[in-house]
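hey so i finally got around to running the thing on that chain from the lab meeting. sorry it took forever, my laptop kept dying and i had to restart like 3 times. anyway pasting the input first so we r on the same page abt which one it is
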Amino acid sequence: MAEASIQVQVCHALPDNAFLRSLSVPVGTTVEQVVKLSGLLQQVPGIDLAVNMVGIYGKKKTLDTVLRQHDRVEVYRPLLADPKEARRRRVGSKPAKA
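ok and heres what got predicted. didnt touch it at all, straight out
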């Protein structure tokens, strides 16, 4: 009997293009395993799974999360600026209201 499999996607957005790959993987495959199987780490060598956060449909997950049918695994780029600090700078640069 053939091993049961599920359909999933792996994606990673870059400033000038995006990586998106659909895969059929065995039931029980983890986020880390599917990222490695997708070829993303070879195509975008700067990714370090110990540093880059991962998620499924915009919700942060751990590398040992077991995938379900039609999950889209997202590998996020590091933030260039702290969002709270960027907002403080924007607010601080506006003239005070009279």
